[in-house]
Design brief:
globular, 161 residues, Rossmann fold, alpha/beta
Length: 161
């Protein structure tokens, strides 16, 4: 959906992915001829750098794209991570995460193999959570959408120059 709307961000760009460990597929395949950096909390397939998203210290606007799929619900520092992604992106920020109605997953209580480095934190997030906690003025335009099955929240935001 985002690639169809903004194809210019999916070819020949510098891409930062937060939460890149390939557990059940990767978004890396959607980016063609890109300089791609996958970051996650531990080593594994799809991980180029082991680090926390909120602690990355690349210069402002050093990536055309910052993307994170299905990991914010496992990150107690999701606000700092989102703000850091927006700081490091010059073009677009893309994010998906679990929202209201999604059963807890990826914790030691449920299915630790689905998020092996995350521990027990889990919180479904809503559009309102982002609007109340994040600086959305960093974006020229943004959009949230969601679905009821599998209960995901989707976001894209075009960065201010």
């Amino acid at each position: 959906m985002v690639k169809r709307r903004f194809p210019q961000f999916f070819s020949g760009k510098k891409v930062l992915e937060i939460g890149s460990l390939d557990i059940n597929g990767s978004v890396r395949q959607f980016f063609e001829n890109c300089e791609y950096l996958g970051v996650d909390l531990g080593e594994g397939k799809g991980v180029d750098l082991v680090a926390k998203g909120e602690e990355l210290d690349f210069p402002d606007k050093s990536f055309s794209v910052a993307i994170s799929c299905e990991c914010f619900e496992h990150n107690p520092e999701w606000v700092k991570t989102f703000e850091n992604m927006a700081r490091m992106a010059s073009g677009i920020v893309i994010m998906t995460c679990a929202t209201t109605g999604r059963p807890e997953h990826g914790t030691r209580r449920t299915s630790p193999e689905d998020a092996p480095y995350c521990g027990d934190y889990y919180q479904n997030l809503t559009e309102q959570d982002f609007l109340e906690n994040c600086d959305m003025d960093k974006f020229l335009h943004y959009e949230f959408s969601s679905n009821s099955s599998p209960a995901d929240l989707y976001f894209w935001g075009l960065c201010k120059p």
